[in-house]
Every structure is written in structure tokens, then in C-alpha cells.
Sequence to fold (465 residues):
Amino acid sequence: MATPEERLAELGLELPEPPAAVANYVGIVVVDRLAFLAGHGPVEDGGFPYTGKLGSDVDIEEGRRAAHLVMLNMLATLKNEIGELDRVARVVKLLVMVNSHPSFAEQPAVANGASDLLVSIFGEDRGRHARSAVGMAALPFDISVEIEGIFALQD
Amino acid sequence: MATPEERLAELGLELPEPPAAVANYVGIVVVDRLAFLAGHGPVEDGGFPYTGKLGSDVDIEEGRRAAHLVMLNMLATLKNEIGELDRVARVVKLLVMVNSHPSFAEQPAVANGASDLLVSIFGEDRGRHARSAVGMAALPFDISVEIEGIFALQD
Amino acid sequence: MATPEERLAELGLELPEPPAAVANYVGIVVVDRLAFLAGHGPVEDGGFPYTGKLGSDVDIEEGRRAAHLVMLNMLATLKNEIGELDRVARVVKLLVMVNSHPSFAEQPAVANGASDLLVSIFGEDRGRHARSAVGMAALPFDISVEIEGIFALQD
Fold:
């Protein structure tokens, strides 16, 4: 079995630097077996390449790429905290928040950009997770997608 | 004491088929004692009988019925996973997401459609839960209500 | 080391009465070491001094004060349940929901009103937390900020 890091390499993906802690909050808190990840955005080279609302400014394919990039940032935060991604026993839960025009109703298609990456990296048994994919009125810095999540670690 | 299933029968309610897992996510993940339920919608006979926004398209009574139907779907997912609903030690937390026109401010009245059902089925001690009931800009398939939740199971 | 209650007193802050349980939900549920707090609003003397949307009706400084007041209410609920705030081992996670005009993108500045208070009361090690700060289409009673959270308690 390939490790999650080997799977990332096979897919030609590289984890970014974990996003810096801003002010009085942090990117991750671990309690017992549960790792709680803060809301992450689509950060690349210190900027936000995906901004604007789905349904008006941004199309679904761009939204999906934004969700993919958010998840790379989350995995960077997670690896920075736990060392090896193989310590993940199960991806538990994502809340995928999509910056949405009131008429936009395809949040699940956007969220798949994150969910598909997780299954691809961790495999079906560990990677499939509970999820909500919903439409927000607005997000910080007008980013198109923000995701928070819970991961279970091995004992 | 009636079991939760007996209470459902007394109320003339039937659990639907658990909603099918769609793509790379699942309806529920259990970690130790905590069951994390994915965002569920108001599914009936494979369709969505409640769509549109509260405050413009849908009135509060319809919203409450939508929340009630969402909770039946959540209980179906939960029972499918754990066998008997009596294994629930406590309903812990709901996030009730109401598809809302920006002027709509009665999300709690809508959410009661789910909360009242839980207390009715599980009783006060097990059924009363922490809750947020909030207004979303948009939801998948334009459903009127989506709910995610956490349930604690017996050891 | 000052206790959290002593820090509150040093800052001239007083916890309000814990907000009353409304209908079929409660302000807090504790499972093992995790305390799950319901969505709280900016309640003062039984009323809501902060209503309206950020980006149209309410400015950032008012929003920050609203978030500060929400957190005092959450701490009141928590203390009422656990007795002494020193039993908090770690603030784990906040979901800061800001009532937002679609153009408003500074939810983090608003959320700092809650996060800064936590670090001030519990110190950096216990007080810094994972957080999402996001824009809602609407909130109950048109309050400007609603926050739910997870706190880890000592064994």
C-alpha cells in the first residue's frame, strides 16, 4: 500500500507550506483521537487564486479546482501537526462552504474537488467521509470556497 | 419505556430508505462514541418535496415540515448504521441550515420541526440537544433545509 | 496563574446570566471530554443590542463588539455547566457566523472579538483555537453574529 505522501507524489501533487497562524487562532487542534481543522481557503504562493461567487463570477470547474486547492492546504496543516499522513485512521467530516449567488445550487459538484482528492490519497475505506456542501452569502477575502474538517487519528 | 422505533410507530411515522451514498462521501461516520451525520436533505420517494427559500418561496409551516422530513432521513441513516436507535445515548448537536432570503429571521421556528421530533422519539433526557439554526444563501438542489448532526452512542 | 474568572474580573467583565434554554434544545451538551456549545447570540439584559448585517447596517467595530458579547454568553453557559472555567483544557473550535451582505469579506476581523477574549481569559496555550469565520445570508432575530463552539475539558 502506498502511503498518502506517495499517492500525492504519484498524482504530481505537492503540499504547500502550511498556512501561517493568523492572530489568535490556529489551523488545527487535536483532542485525543480527533483533529479539528480550522476553516481553510484556497491559498497558493501566499495569494488567493480563486475568488468570487459560484453562480455569478466563478464556474463549477473553477470551484472544483478551488476546493482541491483548499484540501491541499488542509493536508499541509495536518501533516505539519501529525508528521505522517498515514497516522490518519479516517477522514470523518467536512463542512464545505461555497461562496454562492442565491441561485446557485450545485455545491456538491464543487465539493467533489476536495472529496475526490481525499479518497484518491487515503483510499476508499479511510478517505470516504461525512460531508455537508452548502452555500454561504460571503466568505473572507471573497474566496470561492472555505472548508473545515474533522479527521480521526490512529490511537 | 418505549424504544425510539416504537415511538415512531406510535406517531404513525415510518423511516424512509436511508439516502444512498453519493459519490465519494457517505451519510455517517462513527468514531468511538460519536456518530457524525453528513448534511441531509428532505428526501421523499427519491425526490425533494421541499425546495425554495424561506422568506420568499416557502412559509414557516412548510419549512418546519421540511426539517421534520430531514430528521426522518437522518434517523434512517443512523439506524442503518447502528441497528437499534436505542443505542443512542444522547443527541449532541445539530446544525440546521435554512435556505433563507436575506430578510428571513425565523430559522429557530423552522428548526423546531427537527428538534421536536428528536425529543418526541428519544425523550427529554436523551433527545434535547445543542443546536444552531442559521440562514444559508443557497443549498444543493435548492432544498429548503439541510441538517448535519452529532449523536453520542452508548459505550 | 490567574483563573479565567480572575482574568474576567481584571478586565472588568462580568458574565451574564446563561441564556435560557428555549424550546426543545439546550445551550450545551457534554460528551466525555468534549463540551459542544449551541449557537449563541449577542444577548444583553434579555435583548439583542446588535442586529443587522455587516457590510450594510453594521460596521466592523460593532461586529467585533457583538462577537465579544456572544463569547461572554457562551462562557456563561459553559461555567453554568462545568462550575469552574479552569476545567477547560483547551478551546478547540469556533464556527463564527456573521450576518453578511453578499459584498462583506472581513468576517475574520469580526470574529477576533470572540477569539481575542478567549486568549485573554485562558492564555495562549489553552485559549488559541481552530476557527471558521464565515458569512451567513441571515440569522435568527437578525442578530449580527452567532457562534457555536467545542471546548475540551480536563479528564
